[in-house]
Amino acid sequence: IGAALTDGSYDVMLFSSEGKAIRFHEEDVRPMGRQATGVRGMRLGEGQRVVCMLAAKDDSRAVLTATANGYGKLTPIEEHPVQGRGGQGVICIQTSERNGRLVGAQQVSLDDEMMLITSTGTMIRTPVSDISIMSRNTQGVRLIRLDESDRFVGISRVEALPGDDANSTD
Q1: Which of 37, 93, 137, 151 can pair with 119 through a Cys bridge, CB separation 3.0 to 4.6 Å?
Q2: pTM of the predicted model, to two decimals?
């Protein structure tokens, strides 16, 4: 799902396919040996799976969540409450027939750009600042228009470089 280098002061965020997220302090996870099975990070319901892990430290950033049918939104990190690990989490985006299941989440700033990827290999680069900022318990807005047989499969953050313009035709 993911890995991150931390210094002991981060919060771990886990996101489930049913649109839920849990945020807990990384110090809640005790050090273990290689052979250990680990500790429970998030309790999952029937048919759910963890789709993403983020290490959050800066509350000035936002979380971009995206669903299989091409919908998504930005939510400020501080709207995700810190809990104890092992819970079910809170709704981070509503999953429905319109939205589909959660496929990814990224920690972003408004200066970044995102690469949106579909199951047919279509990739679209878009500025994060063009995506609506919404509260946790909402469905989001259309990020990408999909064909009937196409599905949204992933997002990747692209750090904008000075003088780089995603909409350039040169």
Answers
A1: 151
A2: 0.87
